[in-house]
Amino acid sequence: MFSRAPFVVVALFMALAQDSRSAVPRFFPDDPIKTDNDTAFDASRAVPIEGSNGYDFAEHTFGKPGDRRDIRAVNVNTMDEVPDSSWFTNRIGVRAMSLAEIVRGPNELDTINIDGWPIIQEKSTGITPGFRVVDPEGRLYQIKFDPPGNPEMGSGAEVIGAAIYHALGYNVVQGYIVDLDPAKIVIADSATTVDMSGRRRPLRRGDIDRLLDRAARQSNGKYRATLSRFADGKPLGYFKYYGTRPDDPNDIHPHEHRRELRGNRVFAAWLNHDDSRGLNSLDMLESTAGRGFIRHYMFDFGSIMGSGSVFAQVPRAGNEYILEWAPALKTLATLGLYVRPWILVDYPDAGRAVGRFEADFFDPLQWRPEYPNPAFDLMRPDDAFWAARLVSRFSDAAIRAVVAKAGYSEPGAAEYIASTLIKRRDKVLRAWLTQVNPVVEPRLGADGTLTWANAAIEADVASPSASYVLTWARFDNATGTSVAATENVRVSSPRADAPSSILQGAEFITVSIRTIHPDYPGWNAPANVYLRRVLAGWEAVGLDRAPADTP
Amino acid sequence: MALESGFPTSQKSWLDRALSLFTDVRAGEGPSALLLTANIFCLLAFKRAAEGTSERAAWMLRGAAVCLAIHTLTAVPLLAQEPTTRAEALRREREAKSTRLTPPESGRLERTLLALENGRLFERILNPAEGFFPKVGNITTGSGFSFGPAYRKRGLFGDESDFSVFAAGSFSRYWMLDAKLTLPRLAGDRMFADLHGRRYDFPQEDFFGLGPDSRREDDVTYGLRSTQVGGTAGIRLRPWLGLSGSVDYLTPRIHPGDGSRPINALFSPVDAPGLDVQPDFIRYEVLTDLNYRQPLGNPRRGGRYALLFQLFDDRNGNQDSFQRFELDVQQYISILKERRVLALHALASVSDAGEGQAVPFYLQRTLGGPDDLRGFRHFRFRDQHLLLLQAEYRWEIFTAVDGAIFYDTGKVASRREDLDLRNLESDYGIGFRFGTSNGVFLRVEGAFGSSAGKHFILRFGNVF
Question: Which of B378, B381, B374 is nearest to B456 (CA)?
Answer without folding.
Answer: B374
